[in-house]
Structures are given as structure tokens and as C-alpha cells.
Amino acid sequence: MTSSAQDTRSRSTRMPRSARRKQLLHAARETFVAQGYHAAAMDDIAERAGVSKPVLYQHFPGKFELYLALIDEHTAELVDRVRGALRSTTDNKQRVEATLTAFFDFVEHEGEAFRLVFESDLRSNADVAERLDGALESCAELVGQVIAEDTDVSADAARLMARGIVGYAEVSARYWLAQGGRVSKEEAVGVLARLTWRGISGWPRTP
Fold this sequence. Notes:
Elements: H1 3-11, H2 17-35, H3 42-49, H4 53-59, H5 63-87, H6 92-110, H7 112-118, H8 126-150, H9 155-178, H10 185-200
Helix pairs in contact: 2-3, 5-6, 5-8, 6-7, 6-9, 6-10, 8-9
């Protein structure tokens, strides 16, 4: 057996499917960030992951499917952050700040990977747009449930309010990231939380 064949075999050591998938997604994210989606090749991703190309294709049929899987991974994290923020306290004023912080923490933590997923020119692709919109809708559903439970507004009105809150939280966090954090995260969250709470607190809390 040649040295190169031994290297490929050792790099492709069998591991649980879920662990291998996680490894491949990590390699894909690093490759896309370093080279850009369009310039990256499956060969590059396989090389970065330390696996053979056939192993990569066993998990993902193509580069676009890898990209969609990355979107699913990142958007699930965002929804989990918002869910955790809403559960972190029963004080609604604090919930507002915690929810906005979840968006800012998300974009700050992800950095270049966030831009890759949320600001790529692929965002206009129907499959990509459906996933991103679905994540924001899931966040809005979580926020809307709290509004509907704690006020006398209808479920539809609560959902509308929540979608507005989630929408400007996402846009504001993206703008903050693009500006290089010229305003501190704490100040940015504080300003938006004050604006949001002044609006929501106009509806008295229902026992």
C-alpha cells in the first residue's frame, strides 16, 4: 500500500455518522469562510476535513446541500438562543432585553460564518430564503406566544407584533456587525430594548 493511500485511509477512519457529519460541516464552514462559497470546491472541503472525497459524498450529494445543512445548523442555534432568552426570566422587561441580546450574541459569536449564511448572495435562492424566513418565523412564534399569554391582544396581533420585533432585532444586529461594533453591544441592546419595551408596555399585563 502506498504512503498516500495509507494517509487517506488513516484520515478517513470510521466514526459515528453524527460525529462525521459534524466534522464535515465544520470543515465546510471553514472552507466557505476562507474561500467564499462559489470558489470553494468539494475537494477543498474533503481535504480540510481529512477525508476522502467519496466519504464526503456519502453524507452530502453536493456543495449546495452542505450549505443548506450549515444554514439549518445556524438557524437552529438562533432559535434555541431566543427560546432560552424567553425562558430565562418571567419579567417581561428583562425578557425583551434577553431576546435582543440573543440576536446580538448570535451575530457576534458567529462572525464571518454568520455573514456567510445570512448575507450571502445565495439568500435570494428559494431554498435558502425558505430556511432563513422559517427561522425568523419560529423566533416570532416564541415571542408571540409570550405576548399573547401576558396581554389581552389577539393571537394574530401578538404574532404581528412579534414578527416586527424579531425583524428589527435581526436587521439591527446585522447592521451593528457590519459597522464593526462602533457602538458597544451593551449600548446597542439597551437602546433597542428601551424602544421595544416602551411599545410593548403600553399593553398592561393580564393576570
